[in-house]
Specification:
alpha/beta; about 30% helix; binds S-adenosyl-L-homocysteine; 13 strands
Length: about 240
């Protein structure tokens, strides 16, 4: 058997937002590797081996997946959303850099619908003009970098999409993020919270920054801050296609 490694995005949660290409890769797999809750989204069947790992084990997980592929298994590494957005695809390439003997393997990255786009579609079109995506987690970068990127993003009048806004291990940082946003974007700027998009727990809320509270976000929330022209139309929020 010739081994292969596919890094696949499972989308934001709903089954009908998994691409046909990803479904086909899952159906052909011998082994599924990933963070427990994501592996749990893959339908089990006879002969399919599930390797659920802990969070923050990305590099070990990637190295293990490469070893299995090299030994002839058809391995699919799963991420939520898109695997190239704050997820496993980069970890796989880091592991390949460390083990150049794997460079010849059959490796493919299959895109998925990232949370930012699923959230934007539910809200309307808040990312209709230039925007930037920022991971608010400081696991892999200092918080000072997060703060600098937020300030520069607002100054350049990008709409901003925030991943990983808030977790139990850093409850104060999102409050600080809201403070910085109010300072640089002003209290009237629209902010949207999109929780568990495409799942039964989905919840959407849009309000001016002045009224935003840190508890409105958790680890299953995408936060989208509009640019200076972002506005409401009926129950939707959108950003015009043109800008000054
Ligand atoms: N690779 C993923 C992102 C991983 S980071 C992707 O492309 O979507 C995890 C963060 O994504 C969460 O903290 C949250 O901010 C966001 N997220 C993932 N799924 C989500 C969903 N269904 N609804 C809202 N936010 C989601």
């Amino acid at each position: 058997m010739t081994g292969s490694l596919v890094v696949a995005g499972l989308g934001p949660g709903a089954d009908n937002l998994v691409t046909p290409e990803v479904s086909a890769a899952l159906a052909a797999a011998t082994d599924i590797v990933g963070y427990g809750p994501y592996v749990a989204r893959v339908a089990t069947r006879d002969g399919l081996i599930l390797h659920a790992t802990d969070n923050r084990q990305e590099l070990n997980r990637a190295a293990h997946a490469l070893e299995m592929a090299a030994s002839g298994r058809r391995v699919v590494v799963v991420s939520s959303g898109d695997p190239g957005v704050f997820a496993m695809a980069s970890a796989v390439f880091e592991a390949m850099e460390a083990k150049p003997e794997h460079l010849g393997l059959d490796v493919r990255i299959l895109p998925g619908i990232t949370a930012m786009l699923a959230a934007a579609a539910r809200l309307g079109a808040p990312l209709g003009h230039d925007f930037a995506a920022i991971n608010l987690s400081d696991n892999l970068k200092p918080f000072a970098s997060v703060e600098r990127r937020i300030r520069l993003g607002v100054e350049a009048d990008f709409a901003l999409a925030f991943y990983n806004p808030r977790s139990a291990t850093r409850p104060h940082q999102f409050a600080r993020v809201l403070e910085i946003l109010r300072e640089v974007a002003g209290p009237a700027r629209l902010i949207s919270f999109a929780h568990a998009v495409s799942t039964p727990e989905e919840r959407l809320e849009t309000l001016p920054l002045a009224e935003a509270r840190p508890e409105m976000a958790d680890m299953r929330t995408m936060v989208i801050v509009g640019n200076s022209a972002t506005r409401r139309v009926g129950r939707f929020v959108y950003t015009p296609r043109s800008a000054p």
